[in-house]
Amino acid sequence: MVNSASEGKPSEARARLLGTAARIFYAEGIRAVGIDRIVAEAQVTRATLYRHFPGKEELVLAYLAEADQAIRAQARTVVAAGLPPADAVRALSRSIAEGIRSPGFRGCAFLNAVAEHPDPGSAVHRAVLAHRQWFLDTVTELLSRVHERPAGPAAHHFVMMRDGAMTAGCLFDPELVGDTFRDGVERLLQVHTAGDPA
Predict the structure, then answer these.
(1) What confidence category does residue 121 fall into, taking pLDDT thresholds of 50, 70 and 90?
(2) Which of 13, 23, 68, 163 counts the highest number of beta carbons within 10 A?
(3) Domain at 56-194, CATH from 3.40.50.300, 1.10.357.10, 3.40.50.2300, 2.20.70.100
(4) What class does CATH assign to 9-54?
(5) Chain centroid to CA 100: how far?
């Protein structure tokens, strides 16, 4: 039998550990969840966990890496659709609003993680900042195609509205939050296209 690890695929035990940790970390918070609970719910031994993840921090980083890849895939789908630039920005905002309306939505995994890891020197904090820089760069690139003027201010505005929507989405009516976010993006596009200060 061929070992899946030798083919570059994660082992079944690693996938189960990561899936379990991701589910609980997202629903309940990172610091509130101990290794014993993850091991019990994933139905593996502690030795198995430590064979794949030297410590809890590495498990948290793997959880964030998976969340990062999912969001990057979402953005790639928008870009690959070949929409006119403004419609690509609208499509990205629509996908964010759909996420807010999804069952079990608990806000942004990255904002939640950084709230629990405020030390700028921590690996988790740095992973959050790296993801956010990528997201800001992606939005800046999309907005730069909408209008030739510098897109930095509009991109920062978009990211701030997105952060607010992600936070409000688990506190208030997600339909209203999603609609409000999309309305804000539409206004941002109008201002950016007109060339007025964003």
Answers:
(1) very high
(2) 68
(3) 1.10.357.10
(4) mainly alpha
(5) 12
